[in-house]
Design goal:
Layout (H helix, E strand, L loop, with lengths): L1 H5 L21 H18 L41 H6 L2 H28 L1 H21 L2 E3 L4 E3 L2 H8 L2 H14 E3 L4 H5 L2 E3 L4 E3 L3
Helix pairs in contact: 4-5
């Protein structure tokens, strides 16, 4: 979307296709799954996809000829390939645990907002200096690769974003490919003969895969 906007294209319409209440905390995982499936179905139904030569694993959902659409889609992949964010944690945690963590996070968020609100009101210069310092630290962390994913060649400004990235299906798929491609059989050397398998990612020779 950013590329299209940079090339001069414009968003001419925005509309709500579906909505739902959040529901009980114990239903978070099923609701996220439902929303993901709906997103994928709507994208195919109204053809928000960039490629018109694929069916994205959901054939016959779009009821119109693609040649009749007066717009071009921008989605490069189906939402179904993204996976459910935080699914394993949601599945293993009880509703009570989730509620406690949510309450604790909300309390810290409110306290942080109140703290910075007071600083901003009493000393605007100190507030701006603190924000600039924090922004500079984030840029430095990105440049230094402090929170980087070497597999995907992405650098993040905080560990939480790296953690979120590591849970995406795209990263998991790339990691599996890297693991497979970097396992090579050593051909020469007495030392390597004892440990014939090598992991280039870890720079280590091993006795078995």
């Amino acid at each position: 979307m950013e590329v299209a906007l940079a090339e001069g294209f414009k968003i001419t319409h925005k509309g709500l296709l579906a909505s739902s209440s959040l529901g009980p905390l114990g239903d978070v995982l099923p609701l996220r799954s439902l929303h993901l499936v709906m997103e994928a179905a709507f994208a195919i139904l109204f053809w928000a996809m960039a490629d018109r030569n694929k069916d994205y694993g959901m054939p016959n959902i779009c009821r119109w000829s693609l040649d009749t659409f007066e717009y071009h889609g921008l989605c490069g992949n189906s939402a179904l390939t993204e996976g459910i964010r935080g699914g394993a944690k949601i599945h293993s945690a009880s509703a009570d645990d989730m509620a406690k963590r949510k309450t604790s996070r909300e309390k810290r968020r409110v306290q942080k907002i109140a703290k910075y609100g007071v600083i901003k009101t009493l000393d605007p210069r100190a507030y701006r200096a603190a924000r600039n310092l924090a922004a500079a630290k984030r840029r430095h962390d990105i440049d230094m690769g402090k929170h980087a994913c070497k597999i995907c060649d992405f650098s993040f400004d905080r560990p939480s974003r790296l953690k979120s990235h590591n849970s995406t299906q795209r990263h998991i798929d790339k990691l599996e490919i890297e693991k497979t491609s970097h396992w090579t059989r050593s051909r020469t050397g007495a030392a390597k003969a004892a440990k014939p398998y090598r992991c280039e990612l870890c720079n280590t020779n091993l006795t078995a895969q």
